[in-house]
Amino acid sequence: MIFDWIALGSGAFTSAVLYYVYRKKTTDIQRIHDAPMLTIDKDLSMLVEEAPDKTIPYAVIEGAATPVKGVIHSQNIAGITGLIQSLILKEHKTEWSKSTRMWIDSASTIKHNTKSVPFRLSAKESHVTVDEALVATGLTLDVIHDKFEPIRSSLGDNLVNWATGEKIKGYQELEEMLPVDSFITGIGEIKMIGGQVHLVPPCSGWTYYLWRGSKAELLRDLRSNTRVWRIVLMFFGSATLLWCLYLLSKWYKKYQEEQNYREYLARVRQAAGNGEETEVDVCAVCLENPRDCVILNCGHVCACQRCTDVLNPPQCPICRERISRVVPLFHA
Fold it and tell me: Helices 215-274 and 2-34, interaxial angle, to 10°?
């Protein structure tokens, strides 16, 4: 019974978390859809200046990413420059799984460094400075270097690896960059800072996006992702509801059994109190022992405990309903 309630609580908690995530994603989609589309031109500064607190809370702008000053040079490929650089070192190994009895490949990141330079979105000889680009959601980088260095093992090393159940296959070096002049759609708070227009994370807590594509492409990607969450939510929600209905039916069945037991117990007590000779006195099977038990689910008092234990098939001698369980009956 405890397991039943733990399963119900776990299912309800999981469904609630999934609903929260799904609701947040649908809300983000609606906010992006309703956000005004601003053009980076000479009139943008005037528009922001006239806004309350010189701030537009949530808006969409598009432009080419250009450096404010200086760029990042690739560590692996000469002549490649960018605005954001990510250096990743991964360890690839093979591990012995005791459950599947197989060798399984895995990879783990052992080093990940990211750096960026200030940049802005430019269009029509105007620009908007992008603040805190690394905290934005949706920004993808181009992989410009991907090198795998295998580890050469001797016979002794292989024996040790076999004994420990773990073997390092090699190391993978990755370098990712955001190229200069990449087309980016920025969605966030537009604010006037020091006489310049800036794109900053919204102070309202709404999602800050930098997306390498158009607004329509971002909405299409978010809707596709939300459909997956909706399917998972429907699955867990339906499973939780069915389990809840099962527990309710189980509880109602037990309640019915207890009601039947109380009703027949009352009848037996009434007959005993009146001194009546009724059918509740002698077992209907052996015709010798007193009737000392209640057969459930039908509720008949028609046999003794010894006879009900050996009935084959286990059916009530009166109504032939299958015996679920037998409850001892005590005459007071």
Answer: 150
Domain co-membership, 286 together with 153: no
Indicate if 172 and 320 belong to the same structural domain. no
Q: What is the pTM (predicted TM-score) of this model?
A: 0.70
pLDDT at 269: 63
User: Over 60: is that where the pLDDT of 280 sits?
Assistant: no
Query: How many domains are there within the chain?
Result: 2
Asked if the bond preceding 317 is cis, omega within 30° of 0, the reply is no
Give residue-wise pLDDT tens across range 177-195.
999 999 999 999 999 998 8
- Name the phi and psi angles at 273, rounded to 5: -70, -30
Q: Could you tell me which of 179, 185, 63 has the C-alpha nearest to residue 121?
A: 63
More confident residue, 257 or 183: 183
The domain boundary, picked from 191, 213, 235, lies at 213
